[in-house]
């Protein structure tokens, strides 16, 4: 039973799982390259599958696929794993879509330490025109749309039994809407005062937490016909853990090692990203600290020196410690939820390991 | 049998069909407003369903839903029409997604004679900041993503029998990829020489023709379990007619009455849109005409006077007449395909009526 999958489930960054998911993604992209929707599109299919292959190969923890397989194991899944890995891969493809469109909106220059897709596509289709950057952004928008469509196709061709397909599609529909609403919240919050902690947590919850932890687990569980009670427990585990994941991400974005995260430390601060960390610091800042934060956060010319100063304010106001405490609280809440149901031992162990890894991660 | 649907099928702009599809869309948006994926998203659900409602209400011929119902009738569909109308509505929602992202890429200011979604959203979220336009474009990109996700949800909740859902999803996956490749072709052609007629027709085929006529017909036919032979005939009918549709669109974009099309005549020319009409004119232009076209087409400051001059060149080079001939050839090809299969009489009549309307339309 579930224990046979334990090699792939025993750690957050399991090589075995990652390889299995990547094999599905590679084969899928090969299929799209070799069988475009029309014979007249062979060259474009080769070009765009290659672009997406490069994007996927550049990194990523394959966290969502792992959680999908874990949810399946937690619900007592057994037998043929190939539909499970295909659904898991579709979640990674959906994540790729979300990142690609995120980079288009943020006009980001790098992702995972490499040029973003729109930068690669700008170079490929520059034609020496002045609006090459616009063409690159539009191309990346279109590739994002295609990747969204591909995440659908991976699901549709997973070979699921009718009732399971129906259950999975319903969860997937909710997940997608929630992410998009969350992105919208984040976008419209961008121009407002950043001192609202509750608003920042709310954005994190909808934009990241739900589609990173809760839904992948529940989608996996649906593949093993999980009853409603199990879905509820997985939500009670996944929601706080997803928020902890995002809060850790916010800390890493300011205090992390760029060599590990693959992302310049200053990016979040330069973009004025609406985080709980920043909101807490703004709330508690004295007039001098407040003026210092207002002057540099969100400034396109934000420097490494500014970052040092901001880090000092985040520490001095206790904002950093409070966010660490928020992470611990959510971790404890998640772990408590695990005790409510007798999960298969290997799955319970993997979920606890996952919770530890999410909270302690450095990348 | 099929003839009972004839009121909705008897013309391209059937009021009955339009109302039935719009009722599904309205009800669906009400559901999304009243039941967001999380209780914390009530305000955002209200705001974004309202924005999409406004977009859908601004116009549109509901051509794709009509063709879906027509494909169903052509394949002998009978019985409960509610799943058919829901799938039909999902095609309109997909079309809305494509238009919204198109407007983001083109930075269009109007659509159907009204401000585009990003202009409305720019105003709603300006916050008085300098980058309000960027926020509006990002918001429209996100709303487009949400509308794509909603087109999926409409399909998933159509209550289709397992084998039909599977057949429809497979067609829908092909349709989506083809449109996105077509958009990509169009985008990267933008900066190149416009004298390639074959390339222009190829863009029209993938970007518009397939998802406007052929796929909606075939998706409808799949809802009535059409055999492979029928799918082939619908392709032989739909492909040339889809190309004719786009060629007519190109003519209307230059020679049409803006009061009917809802789109300023100069837009296509100002954007340097890669059409067969322009390609033919460039091919046949004498040096003076060529210089005149090169000077104004694609120029952001293109005026109504420039348009008169370009119209004159399109007529004098015979480009306009050749495009009319291309439309007639495709019309004849489509009508011949209809004779290969004994369709239900009402459906055959509606398809011929549709072909006539596509070729002769003024909006």
TrEMBL record, chains A, B:
Its cofactor is Mg(2+). Keywords: Magnesium, Metal-binding, Transferase. GO terms for molecular function: metal ion binding; prenyltransferase activity. The keyword Chloroplast does not apply. InterPro entries: Isoprenoid_synthase_dom_sf, Polyprenyl_synt, Polyprenyl_synt_CS. It comes from the Bacteria. Pfam families: polyprenyl_synt. Coiled coil: none annotated. One of its GO terms (biological process) is isoprenoid biosynthetic process. The keyword Transferase applies. Belongs to the FPP/GGPP synthase family. This is Geranylgeranyl diphosphate synthase.
């Amino acid at each position: 039973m579930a224990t046979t999958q334990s090699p792939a489930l025993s750690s957050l960054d399991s090589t075995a799982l990652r390889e299995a998911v990547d094999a599905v993604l590679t084969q899928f992209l090969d299929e799209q390259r070799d069988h475009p929707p029309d014979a007249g599109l062979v060259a474009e299919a080769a070009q765009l599958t290659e672009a997406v292959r490069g994007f996927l190969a550049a990194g990523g923890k394959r966290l969502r696929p792992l959680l999908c397989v874990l949810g399946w194991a937690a619900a007592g899944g057994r037998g043929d794993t190939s539909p499970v890995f295909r659904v898991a891969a579709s979640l990674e493809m959906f994540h790729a879509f979300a990142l690609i469109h995120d980079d288009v909106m943020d006009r980001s220059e790098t992702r995972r330490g490499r040029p973003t897709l729109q930068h690669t596509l700008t170079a490929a289709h520059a034609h020496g025109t002045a609006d090459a950057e616009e063409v690159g952004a539009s191309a990346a928008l279109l590739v994002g749309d295609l990747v969204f469509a591909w995440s659908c196709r991976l699901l549709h061709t997973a070979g699921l039994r009718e009732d399971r397909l129906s259950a999975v599609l319903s969860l997937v529909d909710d997940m997608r809407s929630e992410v998009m609403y969350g992105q919208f919240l984040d976008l419209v919050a961008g121009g407002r005062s950043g001192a609202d902690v509750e608003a920042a947590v709310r954005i994190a919850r909808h934009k990241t937490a739900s589609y990173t932890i809760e839904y992948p687990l529940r989608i996996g569980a649906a593949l093993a016909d999980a009853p409603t009670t199990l879905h509820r427990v997985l939500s009670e585990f996944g929601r706080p853990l997803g928020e902890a994941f995002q809060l850790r991400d916010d800390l890493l974005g300011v205090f992390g090692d760029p060599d590990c995260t693959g992302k310049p430390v200053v990016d979040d601060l330069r973009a004025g990203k609406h985080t709980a960390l920043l909101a807490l610091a703004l709330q508690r800042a004295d007039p001098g600290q407040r003026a210092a934060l207002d002057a540099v956060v969100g400034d396109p010319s934000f420097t490494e020196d500014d970052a040092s100063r901001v880090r000092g304010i985040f520490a001095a106001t206790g904002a950093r410690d409070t966010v660490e405490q928020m992470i611990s609280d959510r971790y404890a809440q998640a772990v408590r939820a695990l005790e409510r149901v007798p999960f298969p031992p290997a799955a319970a162990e993997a979920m606890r390991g996952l919770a530890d890894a999410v909270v302690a991660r450095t990348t």
